[in-house]
Design goal:
Elements (H helix, E strand, L loop, with lengths): L17 E4 L9 E5 L3 E7 L2 E8 L11 E6 L6 E6 L3 E6 L4 E7 L5 E6 L4 E6 L3 E6 L2 E10 L7 E6 L6 E6 L5 E5 L8 E3 L6 E6 L6 E6 L3 E6 L15 E4 L4 E6 L6 E6 L2 E6 L1
Antiparallel strand pairs: 1-2, 2-3, 3-4, 5-6, 6-7, 7-8, 9-10, 10-11, 11-12, 13-14, 14-15, 15-16, 17-18, 18-19, 19-20, 21-22, 22-23
Length: 275
C-alpha cells in the first residue's frame, strides 16, 4: 500500500507539463525538476520539498512563453533541455543556474525534447518535423523526419537510451507511432499501428534496446518488441503485451531503477503495472 505523506506534496504555481527525478547513476542529489511557466528545481529533504531554483530565460519581461516539456541529460546531469511554444529550445546549466544555449529550433511551437548523448538532442514541433541538434555546431540541425501530411504537429519524442540509432514520435490525433533510424532520415523504419485511437505517450525500455511501450485514448498500454522490425511483416507488427485501463491513458513512465514496473495515468488514477 502506498502511503500519502503530506510533507512530500507541494503546490505548483502553474500546471506542470512534465516532472522528472534526478537521473541517478549511482548516488545523486534528491532533486525533482518541473516545467510549466518556468523550469523549477525542487530539493527533497527530510522535512519536505522546497523550491531550490526557478529558472527564467526572459528576466527582462514579466511575461514568459510556457514550457511544453524538458529532458534531463543522463550523461551530463547539470544539463536540462527545455522546449517552448516560442519556437525555442533552451539548454540550462542547473549548477550555475543560467542558460547554457538557446536555439530557435523550429518554425512553430516546440512540443517535446529528448537527449541522445552528451551534447546531442532532438525536438519535435507543430511544424511537423523531428530535428537533431549538436551543441558543437549550433548553427545547423538535421531534419530526421517530417509529417506525411503537411503541418501535422508531432507531439511527443522518445530517444532510445539503449540504442541511440532509434527514436520514436507521435503525430497529433494519430493512432500510429513512428519509429525512426537516424542513419536513414525521412523514412520511418517501422510504424506501430495497433492502437484504436490517438496515442498520447511512449517510453523506451530502460534496460532493453528493442522494447517500447505506448499508450493512448483507446485505454490500451501496449509493449512492442522491435527486434524483428528490420524484416518486413505482412500486415505490420503486433504488440507482445497489452493492458486495458479503465479510461484513456494520458501518460506512462517505465522505471529505470526497477524496469519490471511501468506506471500509467488515466482520469484521476495512477496504476503501476508489472511487466
Amino acid at each position: 500500500k502506498f502511503v500519502d505523506d503530506p510533507k512530500y506534496s507541494f503546490t505548483h504555481p502553474y500546471p506542470t507539463t512534465k516532472i522528472m527525478f534526478y537521473p541517478e547513476k549511482g548516488m545523486g542529489p534528491d532533486l525533482v525538476a518541473t516545467t510549466g511557466d518556468y523550469l523549477r528545481i525542487w530539493n527533497i529533504g527530510e522535512d519536505g520539498i522546497e523550491c531550490q531554483s526557478t529558472l527564467n530565460n526572459k528576466q527582462d519581461s514579466e511575461f514568459c512563453a510556457p514550457l511544453t516539456s524538458f529532458d534531463w541529460n543522463e550523461n551530463d546531469t547539470k544539463r536540462i533541455g527545455t522546449s517552448s511554444i516560442d519556437t525555442t529550445c533552451t539548454i540550462w546549466d542547473i549548477e550555475k543556474m543560467c542558460v547554457d544555449t538557446q536555439l530557435i529550433a523550429h518554425d512553430k511551437e516546440v512540443y517535446d525534447i529528448a537527449w541522445g548523448g552528451m551534447g546531442v538532442f532532438a525536438s519535435v514541433s507543430a511544424d511537423g518535423s523531428v530535428r537533431v541538434f549538436d551543441l558543437r555546431d549550433k548553427e545547423h540541425s538535421t531534419i530526421i523526419y517530417e509529417s506525411p501530411q503537411p503541418e501535422t504537429p508531432l507531439l511527443r519524442l522518445g530517444w532510445n537510451k539503449q540504442d541511440a540509432r532509434y527514436m520514436a514520435t507521435i503525430l497529433m490525433d494519430s493512432s500510429k507511432v513512428v519509429v525512426l533510424d537516424i542513419r536513414y532520415p525521412t523514412m520511418p523504419v517501422a510504424e506501430l499501428q495497433r492502437h484504436q485511437a490517438c496515442v498520447n505517450s511512449l517510453a523506451w525500455a530502460p534496460h532493453s534496446p528493442c522494447h517500447i511501450c505506448t499508450a493512448g485514448d483507446d485505454s490500451q498500454a501496449l509493449i512492442w518488441d522491435l527486434s524483428s522490425m528490420q524484416q518486413p511483416l505482412e500486415g505490420g507488427l503486433d504488440p507482445i503485451l497489452a493492458y486495458s485501463a479503465g479510461a484513456e491513458i494520458n501518460q506512462l513512465q517505465w522505471s529505470s531503477v526497477q524496469p519490471d514496473w511501468i506506471a500509467i495515468a488515466f482520469t484521476n488514477k495512477l496504476q503501476i503495472l508489472r511487466v
